[in-house]
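Reopening this one. Same input as before:
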Amino acid sequence: MGAEQERLEQTSPSPSAIRLRAVVLGLALALGICLLTPLNNAYHKGTPLGGGHFPLAPFFILAWLTLLVALAGRIFRGRPWLTGRELLLTWVLMVVVSGIAYTGLVRTFFINLTAPYHFASAGNGWEEVLQPLLPRAMYPQSPAAVDDLYNGLEGGRELGWFQVLARIPWHVWLRPLLVWTSFVFLCYFILVCLVNLFSRQWIHNERMNFPLLQVPLVLAEAMDQRSLGRFLASPFLLVGLLVPVVLHLLNGLSFYYPSVPQVPTLILAGTYFPKYGLFSAFYKLKIYIYPAFIGFAFLASRQISFSFWLFFVLGGLFIGLLSLLGYDIPAAALGVTFGPNLSRPEETQMIGAYVVFFLFIVWLARYHLWRTTGRAFGLLPPGEERERVEWFSAPVSLWGSVLGLLALAIWCRLFGLPLLPAFLLVGAFFLVMLVASRVICQGGLAYFTLTIAPMDGLLAFFGSGFFSRVGLLVAAVTQKMLFLDLRESLMPSLFHAGKVSYEVRGRRLVFIGLAVALAAGVIVSFLAMLALCYRYGIRELELDWATRTTVSMLDNVKVLVETPADPGRWVRLFALVGAAIMLALVVCYHRLHWWPVHPIGYLTAYSSSMRILWFSFFLGWLANSLCIRYGGVALFKKLRLFFIGLIIGDFLMGGLWAVVGLLSDASYLVLPD
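Same output, byte for byte:
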C-alpha cells in the first residue's frame, strides 16, 4: 500500500500545475452554457443558469464533475484526470462566460438595438425626437428584419436551429454587430487590464477573503489532498445539505403538485410597520429565506455581514427620520435619472459614496500603483519579486488600461458624444465597476444590483446640456449595454479568476483560456439569442423586464433631449452627504482598530439586492458571532461545514429543478431571478 501511494504521488501532476485539458474542458462547458442559457432563461422561464456572481450551472457542473473525477480515481487508481486546482479552473472559466449569455450582455442587447424603431409611436414621439439622433451604424436599418425579430420567422417553430440561423438577414445585422462587438471587446480589454493591475493589491497585499470562492476552494483542496470522501461524510456537512434538500424537495413538489404542503420562504413583514413615521420605509418589508446566502454570510467577515444588514436598517430609518422631521422630499426632486432602482432623492447619497470609496481603494493601493507607474515609465527597475499573481506584468496592464480608456472615449466621440463628457463618462463607468467588484468580492454578494447609474452623477453636477443631444442617447445606450445591470457583471468574475490562478504554474495558459472564452462567449451568445428570437419572437419570450427597462431608458433620454435639465439641488446635496458619510466611515475603519462596521455596507444600503439578502446576512452574522463567542475556533471549523452544506445543497437542488424545468413547461425557482 505504501509503495502504491508513493507511485501515485510521483506520477500525479503538481496541484499548482494547470494542463491544457482543463482549459479545453472549461471552454467547452462554458460555451455550452452560453448556448443553453437564452433558451432556458427566456423561453423555458427556468431557473437562471448563469445568474449572479456565484452562478448555478457552473457550480452544479463542478460538484458532479468533482465526484466523477474522484470516483474514477478510486476505481482506476491511476493519475487523476484532473486535479482539484484544474477543476477549479474549469469552474471559473464557466463563471466568467456564463453572465455574458444573459443579463451580463445579451438579455437587453438586441432590444437596445431595435427598440428606438420598433416601439416608436405617435404617443411617445420617438420618431421625431430620437430617431434623427441615432447613429445609423449602430442600428439595423431594416424594419422587416426587426419585425421578424419580435414576431419570429414565419414557420420558425418548425425549423431546425441551423435553418433558423441560415434565414437570419445577416446583411442587416453585420454592421451594427461589428460596431457593438468592437465596443464590447474594448470594454472587456480594459476590465482585464484593471483586474490584472489591482490583483496583487487585493489578493497579495490586502489578503482579501473572497467568500464566494470558499466552497469551490474547499472542494479543490479536498480533491488534491485525497480527502473528498472524508469531507463529504462530515456530519455537519450532511446536516447542512439536508436542510435545503428537504426544503426545496417539498416546495418543488408543491409547485408542480399543489396538494403537497410547502414551507414558506417569503414572509411579508411590512404589515408590522406603520405607513408613516420613523419606520415608514419598512412598510413593504419582506423577509426572504435562502439557505445558500445564509451560508455565504457566515463565510464572510463578521464585520462585513454585520455592516450589510445594519446599513440596510439605518438607511430605512434615515428616510423615516427625514419624514418625521418634515423633510418629505418628493420623488420629482430626483429629476430624470437612469438608476436601475433609484426611487427617492435620499438614495443619491451613493453618488458621493462611490466616488469617495473609489479614492479609498486607490489610496490603499498607492504604493503598488506608484511602483507600477515608475516601472511603466522606466523610472524604477523591474520588480525582483516572483510574479505570483498577475497574468502579465503590471506595467503592461497600466498602459493597457490608460490606452484602452482613451480608445473607448474616442469610440464614444466618433458616435456623437463630445470628448470631455466621453472621458468623464468612461471614467465613471469603470469607477462604479471597480467599486461594485470590491463590494461583491469582499462582501460575498452573489446577487448585487446598483442603486445609481454612472450617468446619474454626471447629470447631477453638470446637467444634461453637458452631453449634447446625440451624446445623451449614446451615453445612455452604452451604459445600458454593460454598466447598468450588474447582476452578472464580468469584473468580479475576473477577480475571482485572478484569485483561482494565484500561485499556479501556467498562469499564461489560464489567461489565454480566459481571452478565448470571452471572445467565443460573446459570439456564441449573440448567435444563440438571435436564433432564439428569430425562431420564437421576442414577444413570446421572457424578456418583459429587458423590454420595459430599455423603453424606460429611451423615454428618459427623450425627456432630457426635449427639456434639458439643470443640475439637481437635492441630488447634489445628498451626493455631498453621501461623500461626507463615506469619508468618515473609511477614516474610522482605517484608523480605529475597534471600529465595528465596514464602509462597503453603506454602499449597499439602498440596493434592491439587499432588500432580498439583508435577513440572510443577519442570520449568517448572528450564527458566526455566537459560534466564535461561545465555541471559539474549534467550533467554527466544524460549524463552517454546516454552512458550506447549505450552499452546496441549495445549488444542487437549484440545478436539479432547472433540469426538470427544461423538460417541462414551468420551472420551480430555487434562487432569486
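So the earlier flakiness isn't reproducible anymore. For the record, Residues 608-662 form the longest helix (55 residues).
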